[in-house]
Amino acid sequence: ALATVPAAASVGRPVAQFGAATAVAVGIASAEYTNWVCRRAGVGTSAYGATGGALSVASGRLSFMYGFTGPAVSVDTACSSSLIGSHWALRELLAGSCRAAVAAGVGILLSPDPTAMFQKAGMLSPEGRCKTLDAAADGYVRGEAVGALVLAALSLEGHIGGRDGDGDGDGDGGERASCLALVRASSVNQDGRSSSLTAPNGPAQQAVVRAAL
Predict the structure, then answer these.
(1) Does one domain contain both 25 and 63?
(2) Contact in structure between 31 and 113 (CB atoms under 8 Å)
(3) Domain membership of residue 211 as a residue range
(4) Other CB atoms closer than 10 Å to residue 46's CB: what's the count?
(5) What are the record keywords, sorted (predicted)?
(6) Looking at the structure, do residues 102 and 65 belong to the same domain, yes or no?
(7) pTM for the full model?
(8) Are residues 39 and 93 in the same domain?
(9) φ and ψ at 162, to 5 degrees?
(10) For the chain, what is the mean pLDDT?
């Protein structure tokens, strides 16, 4: 929720002015918070554990806090969760089911267990360095981040919620929203069968890039 505030500020609109028809997509591929709470307090010690640890609530809580009635989903596709969430939000905008969308991603490391398991699986770099697109790549490094984007269709840029207060037809009440970037296209596919369940599939990844182009 806190990441949504600066995202809204970057387009020159407080969250309260987005309007009810706002969608929410949160990429979240970890339940480490639930595991952390259970370890510290014990299972079933609080009624809030049922909602606080549910991945679905990551998106639902934003809609609840800000009164958004557009579609809301929490997306878990591992490392690509926030990207897939953004793709979904773009499709909802194009379909006309919302006027704006908040696309967010969160990854917080609270338990050593996943890191230990990934290390045993050979996924993590022994050197502690990511070597993207390098023949010397020997794994990846886990990190933490929380971020959010505000998305709107180009034809609606400038009137994310609110009413036209200055008569210029842009629906912004006198100040245009800032457009920081344009998304020309996006595409999604799946690796399918590769050398293992978690191994990337080069041809499939090339195909998804070509599909977006």
Answers:
(1) yes
(2) no
(3) 184-213
(4) 12
(5) Phosphopantetheine, Phosphoprotein
(6) yes
(7) 0.82
(8) yes
(9) 70, 175
(10) 83
Q: In this structure, are 131 and 34 located in the same domain?
A: no
CA angle 76, 188, 202 (to 5 degrees): 100
Residue closest to 96 by CA, chosen among 149, 156, 150, 56: 156
Count: domains in the chain: 3
With b for 16 or more beta-carbon neighbours within 10 A and e for fewer, the 139-174 pattern comes to beeeeeeeebbbbbeeeebbbbbbeeeeeeebbbee
Tokens of 96: 């006309």
Q: What is the pLDDT of residues 114-144, one digit of tens each?
A: 899 999 999 999 999 999 889 999 999 999 9
My answer on whether 44 and 71 are in the same domain is yes
156 shares its domain with 188: no
pLDDT value of position 167: 40
The answer to whether 78 and 2 are in contact (CB under 8 A) is no
